[in-house]
From TrEMBL:
PANTHER family: NITRATE ABC TRANSPORTER ATP-BINDING PROTEIN (PTHR42788:SF7), TAURINE IMPORT ATP-BINDING PROTEIN-RELATED (PTHR42788). InterPro entries: AAA+_ATPase, ABC_transporter-like_ATP-bd, ABC_transporter-like_CS, ABC_transporter_ATP-bind, P-loop_NTPase. This is Putative ABC transport system ATP-binding protein. It comes from Paracoccus sulfuroxidans. It is a peripheral membrane protein. GO terms for cellular component: plasma membrane. It is found in: Cell membrane. The lineage of its organism: Bacteria, Pseudomonadati, Pseudomonadota, Alphaproteobacteria, Rhodobacterales.
Length: 275
């Protein structure tokens, strides 16, 4: 079998990626992501944790296509996306953001949101007539996975949903077409702890069932340990720790926080502890 066949090629390859920013009042550039290498296998769930400002969101935004690396290469499911605008990555990369407001259009119904997501990179989108029986079936099936009754509300305005319901809709939309890679940028951090747990557990269940490779940024260390196959730690623009399933098996939140402190001399913010 060829090493580049769909079954074996990595879901994500980040090769030597560098991103620098100009800083106000300073002549030298600030390095936010410092020659990062990261490979994610098909179906693998990777949790990424790290201190504030360590470069997690910048790395995610380069993978999603809203920023371009200054150097390096990014491939998703074998496709070179480094210079591809984000709208062209639909189907390859799906992103669920922290703020529920940023993931769904409040003025559209749930079904219309699905129609819009499905239209993806096609430039012509006409809302009138876009909600076809196929879209409705797709939306109902995707939403039923969350067991929140959302499949019976597809004609409701998304703006009338709670934050947790919106994030459930967002994950359902992001995964229903089986993207090459799912990016979760603190997608449950704006929810209350109970809702956060439910949405996180369902998210894991869905991505495992669909075998969608996932890179999840979180400040909740227990989520990072519990809901991943692998845990990576970013610090000052670099990946400083990379724990596979075996190393992660006996890991507890206090041990993880201690290991981070030993490695970096700094404390890791744990939203579950801070909450
Ligand atoms: N557009 C920009 N211009 C200048 N500096 C930036 C820009 N975007 C990010 N940075 C800086 O790059 C660093 C990394 O930011 P980034 O948002 O990636 O960190 P993070 O790990 O996601 O942090 P947090 O956990 O707090 O969300 C920070 O010091 C930030 O101030």
């Amino acid at each position: 079998m060829s090493s580049t066949s769909p079954e074996t090629r990595p879901a994500l390859e980040v090769v030597n990626v560098l991103k620098q920013f100009k800083q106000a009042g300073r002549s030298e550039l600030f390095t936010a992501v410092n020659r990062v290498n990261l490979t994610i296998a098909p179906g693998q769930i990777v949790a990424m944790v790290g201190s504030n400002g360590s470069g997690k969101s910048t790395l995610l935004s380069m993978i999603a296509g809203s920023q371009r690396p200054d150097q390096g290469e990014i491939r998703v499911a074998g496709v070179a996306v480094t210079d591809m605008p984000s709208w062209q990555r639909t189907g390859l990369v799906a992103l669920v953001r922290q703020n529920p407001e940023h993931n769904v259009f409040s003025a559209l119904t749930i079904a219309e949101n699905f129609a819009l997501a499905d239209a993806g990179k096609s430039k012509r989108f006409n809302l009138k007539g876009a909600v076809t029986p196929r879209i409705k079936d797709m939306a109902r099936a995707a939403l039923a996975q969350f067991s929140m009754g959302l499949e019976d509300r597809i004609d409701n305005l998304a703006g009338n949903l709670s934050g947790g319901q919106r994030q459930a809709v967002s994950v359902a939309m992001a995964t229903c077409r089986d993207p090459g890679l799912l990016l979760l940028d603190e997608h449950v951090s704006a929810l209350d702890p109970t809702r956060a747990r439910v949405v996180m557990e369902k998210t894991e269940e869905i991505v495992r069932a669909r075998r969608v490779a996932t890179l999840m940024v979180t400040h909740d260390m227990s989520h990072a340990i519990k809901h991943s196959d692998r845990l990576i730690l970013m610090h000052r623009g670099q990946i400083t720790m990379d724990l596979g399933a075996e190393e992660k098996a006996g890991l507890t939140v206090p041990t993880l926080l201690r290991r981070f402190e030993e490695l970096t001399g700094e404390s890791l913010p744990d939203s579950a502890v801070l909450a």
